[in-house]
Amino acid sequence: MTIAKIIGHRDASDVVSCDVTTPVADVVSVLAGKRIGALPVMRGGEVVGIVSERDIIYRLAEKGSECLNLPVESIMTSPAIMVESNTSVDDALGLMTRRRFRHFPVVDRGKLVAFISIGDLVKNKIDEVEHEAAAMRDYIQTV
Fold it and tell me: What is the pLDDT of residues 97-119, one digit of tens each?
């Protein structure tokens, strides 16, 4: 299964993102208001980084509340690790596990098409396993 199957019903215009010039305080408001953990950071229509709750916490611990006035570009993780929609769910999960991150942009032909969390991928895997288990139960009952 590929990421394309997970994001097939999503509209790229629904991806919540921010510009590199967005103040960190505004990013905090968006993350809290939308109850999400990270945003892709854009410059001129291209993904140039990701800002996550972790990035904000680490900078707050390092610089104090003054970091809230900085542009998000100064605290984001860059370059962003990205995948294409034809990436398998297993490969994406492996990448997230090895690199220890929980969100990544999905980019096709240089254009942001989705933003995926590890929760999206795990939910997909659980649904897949449940479907396989149901198919096995049905098979066993017919034998």
Answer: 998 888 999 999 889 999 999 88
